[in-house]
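Risk register update: the risk of archive-format incompatibility is retired. Evidence:
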Amino acid sequence: MTPATFTLNDQSEYIELNKLLKFENLVQTGGHARLVIEDGLVRVNGEVEYRIRRKLRSGDRVEIDGKTVVIASEP
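Archived output:
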């Protein structure tokens, strides 16, 4: 399956993990995002991530429930 791409706008150098999960509709609510992260169900760059507000920057790869999102920056 081809990974989705989330593009940071030129105003932002990062997005927090919990916000990305909500924005990409990978979770239903902020509370749900917190639970899946705390339960170790999210990987960032291939490693389980437990930090709810982990700052994701261009090039980072997030995986959850068989779905992948790659962070990119505007050219």
